[in-house]
Structure formats: C-alpha cells, structure tokens
Amino acid sequence: MKIIIMGCGRVGEQVSLLMQQAGHQVTVIDSDATALARLTQAFKGRKIKGVGFDRGVLVDAGIESADAFAATSSSDNVNIVAARIARNIFRVPRVVARLYDPRRAEIYQRLGLLTISSTSLGAERIHQLIAHAELEPVLSFGRGEVNLIRLEAPSQWIGRAVKHMGVPGEISVVCVNRNGEAFIPLSGTEIKTGDTLHLAVHSSSMDRLQELLGLGEGG
C-alpha cells in the first residue's frame, strides 16, 4: 500500500515506522523540518516539508495514487481539513484523522471520516484498568468499543451451555481452549473445568460481565 502520514510528532513517527515495517510505501509530511529529522535512519520512505493540507504538497506526496492517508498532527482543525481534502477531493480509499477533542468525533463520522481520539482511548483504558482489573482485555477493536477478554472458566459456568453465557449484542463466547486445543464453540457446547474462554464484550457491558462472573460488589 501507498500511505501518506501527515504530521511527524510522536504518533505520526510511530505510525510511519510501523507501516514501513509492515512492508508499505510510506511518505511523511510535516511543516517542521526538525520533526521530520526525528525519523531515524531506519525510515526509508519519503519526507516532505510542507503544509499537510496544501494541494500542491499533497500531490507531490503522491496522494493521487495513495491507498491511505492518516492525519496525525497536533491540531484537530488541521487534521480534519487535510482528511477532508484527502477523502473528498483526491478520493483516497482509507482516511483516518487523529482528534484530541472526542466531542467532535460524531460530527466527523457523519462526514464519512474515520477518527481516533487519544483522549477517549486513554480515558476508557484507565477506566478498564481501575474498574475491571480482573478482566484484562487481550485485544480491542475499533476505537475500543469491543474487547476480547481471556479468562479461566468460572466455577459457576461449569456444566452450562455456551448459549446461556452470552448476552446478544453485548457478550459472546467466541473461542474455547481445552486441553491445549482451541475451537469455536457451538451454542450447545458445554463449558468444562479447565477451559480457557475468550469472550467478545462490548465496552458498555463490562459491568454486566462482572455480574455474570460474580465479580461485582459483594461477589
């Protein structure tokens, strides 16, 4: 893939290196030459000094043939302007904008823009670590709306069918590891002692999962 990263702060730098390591062709844009200089010699992509929402700069960066564009500068306004130009004018298939203010996210999603709010992600992660310490997510999807939780089968679930352990749209047992082998359970699969379960859980349903596991107050 041909990927353009606008903004070479800490986030932009890390994204650029990760994309390169994954084998993609990466171009980084930043108006600050010092920021571009932070990219180590390990970075083999292009560096362009310029304003990230300037059409001439974007064309020079190859946006007309880009597969993805990420706006990761420290300014929400700059990120959104650049992201809209990339999507609406140059029709880049995949456009992501970093936002500091999570209140703007819904507005920009209506415009068809994918947004990442480090503020929301950080707040949600802190909440999980404090309020749900027993349920450490091993993977998160989207912007953290869905988490994959790994846990040993609780005693109160032993002998019960998987279909009775889920909540439609909120909690679902998606994988069972038994005797060293993993499999996708059927609705009638019986949970056995020693099973390790992987559950897909909506972030808003973590409290409900704690109740099912008997981890709530007084549990």
Task: Give a quick precis of the structure.
This protein has seven helices and eleven strands.
Give the key terms.
219 residues; alpha/beta; Rossmann fold; Alpha-Beta Plaits; 2 domains; six-stranded parallel beta sheet; five-stranded antiparallel beta sheet; 7 helices; 30% helix; elongated
Description:
This protein has 219 residues and is an alpha/beta fold. The protein has 2 domains: 119 residues, Rossmann fold; 84 residues, 2-Layer Sandwich (Alpha-Beta Plaits), CATH 3.30.70. Helix content is 30%, strand content 27%. Strands 3-2-1-4-5-6 form a 6-stranded parallel beta sheet, sandwiched between helices. 27% of the residues are buried. About 4% of the residues have low confidence.
Blueprint (SSEs and pairs):
Layout: E1 2-6, H1 10-21, E2 25-30, H2 33-37, E3 46-49, H3 55-60, E4 68-71, H4 76-89, E5 94-99, H5 105-110, E6 114-117, H6 118-131, E7 137-141, E8 146-152, E9 171-178, E10 181-183, E11 196-202, H7 206-213
Parallel strand pairs: 1-2, 1-4, 2-3, 4-5, 5-6
Antiparallel strand pairs: 7-8, 8-11, 9-10, 9-11
Q: What is the average per-residue confidence, as pLDDT, rounded to a whole number?
A: 82
Anisotropy-based shape? elongated
Number of domains: 2
Q: What's the CATH architecture of the largest domain? A: 3-Layer(aba) Sandwich
- The first-to-last residue Cα distance is 50 Å
At the fourth level of CATH, the homologous superfamily of the largest domain is: NAD(P)-binding Rossmann-like Domain
Major sheet characteristics: 6 strands, parallel
